[in-house]
Design goal:
Number of domains: 2
CATH class of the largest domain: Alpha Beta
CATH architecture of the largest domain: Alpha-Beta Complex
Strand order of the largest sheet: 3-2-1-4-7-6
CATH topology of the largest domain: Spore Coat Polysaccharide Biosynthesis Protein SpsA, Chain A
Shape: globular
Distance between the termini: 74 Å
Bound molecules: manganese (II) ion
Structural class: alpha/beta
Number of strands: 11
Radius of gyration: 26 Å
């Protein structure tokens, strides 16, 4: 019965419908065939908003790769953009291109304020001025900048509800915002103003954070909605300096920021045991929280290393997995005796490790096969 009835209704295309309808009908039909984009439609929101990060070296590129994968893992609906400096190797750009929607090459724009940089003992910070280039991404209406040494622990798309310039307080000087995570609106005009401001005023800390805090100088007082909760930029240093607060609120953390000189990629990882191991810096310099460090390495091993292997050539990197052992065997052959046995690695449980870290005893020592893999990767990434 129903089928019969439907069979009687002629199938009309749009032009036939238009012919049948009085002229005002066009208004009701046209929007159906070509729906006008609405400002609040999710599709529009997805395509004109982006997370932006910056990679000036191959090491920071690794950080950017892990950050990008952490955003993907937590199903962001926004675009992913990475600004890449001229020193980043081609295979790294290739990997970044497979994780990010857009890879933008930018010139390194050093602050030139060498005295301040030296004072900060962070000569590498000068290049983060390249960050200011993010304001030129005018194909997007709103962006969230995230340092390559940050890691997303859950979906943070709600950050796009905030306006420029929204950021979390800096743990060292809470009247300043930390420039590791901030919401901004790309604009050629703002970009030019920032550059002019830099030229005239320099940076009080020799880095981008000083410039941005001087430029957006009402952040601390004007509008509380521009203060991002601390859980959107939780630095390990802050955890360490206010442990009771971390124990109370830390489980809500959404973004971890590996502030300081020692970065996750300066460590190595035992993929069999799932443990983070030694780094090149003395242990007392490292205050990264072991759980977050482990999360970073797990994501790196699972979602980034396979891409790097592909980009740098499967065979050369595969042999890299065994090079260390081969070398050791050769060494044994040459010396005619077994190499002296290293002390057996200490077995430390996750809980023990955490307790030690909380007591300030940060001890990442030891060597293992994945450390050698990482070294091999590093040798490719130089
Ligand atoms: Mn950072």
């Amino acid at each position: 019965m129903t089928r019969k009835m439907w069979g009687l209704i002629p199938v009309l295309d749009c032009s036939q419908l238009l012919k049948l309808c009085p002229s005002q009908c066009k208004l009701s039909i046209l929007p159906i065939t070509t729906p006008a984009p609405r400002a609040d439609s999710p599709q529009r929101t997805m395509s004109d908003q982006a997370f932006v990060t910056l990679a000036t070296t191959d090491s920071y590129a690794k950080g950017a790769m892990v950050l990008g994968q952490s955003l993907r893992k937590h199903n962001t609906t926004r675009k992913l953009v990475v600004l890449v400096g001229p020193h980043v190797a081609e295979p790294c750009r290739e990997v970044l291109g497979s994780i990010f929607d857009e890879v933008c090459s930018v010139d390194v724009m050093d602050s030139g304020d060498a005295v301040h940089l030296a004072l900060m003992k962070r000569p590498d910070l000068g290049v983060t001025f390249t960050k200011l280039h993010c304001w030129t991404l005018t194909q997007y209406s709103k962006c969230v900048f995230m340092d390559a040494d940050t890691l997303v622990l859950s979906n943070v798309d709600e950050l796009f509800e905030r306006e420029e310039l929204s950021a979390a307080p800096d743990p060292g000087w809470p009247d300043c915002f930390n420039s590791g995570v901030f919401v901004f609106s790309p604009s050629k005009e703002t970009h030019e103003k920032l550059l002019t401001f830099c030229g005239e005023n320099g940076s009080f800390d020799g880095g981008d954070q000083g410039v941005l805090n001087s430029f957006f100088n009402t952040w601390a007082t004007a509008d509380i909605s521009k203060h991002l909760p601390f859980i959107y930029n939780l630095s390990s240093i802050a955890i360490y300096s206010y442990l009771p607060a971390f124990k109370q609120y830390g489980h809500n953390a959404k973004v971890v920021h590996f502030l300081g000189k020692v970065k996750p990629w300066n460590h190595s990882y035992d993929i069999q045991k799932g443990e983070v191991r030694g780094h090149s810096q003395p242990p007392e310099l490292c205050q990264l929280h072991p759980d977050y460090l482990l999360l970073w390495w797990q994501l790196y091993a699972k979602s980034v290393v396979p891409l790097l292997q592909r980009a740098y050539g499967e065979t050369s990197l595969s042999s890299g997995f065994f090079d260390a052992n081969e070398n050791q065997d050769k060494h044994e052959d040459v010396s005619g005796q077994a190499a002296p046995l290293a002390p057996p690695p200490q077995k430390v449980s996750s809980e023990e490790r955490k307790q030690r870290w909380e007591a300030g005893q940060i001890d990442y020592l030891g060597d293992d096969s994945f450390a050698n893999i990482a070294r091999k990767l590093d040798s490719f990434l130089k």
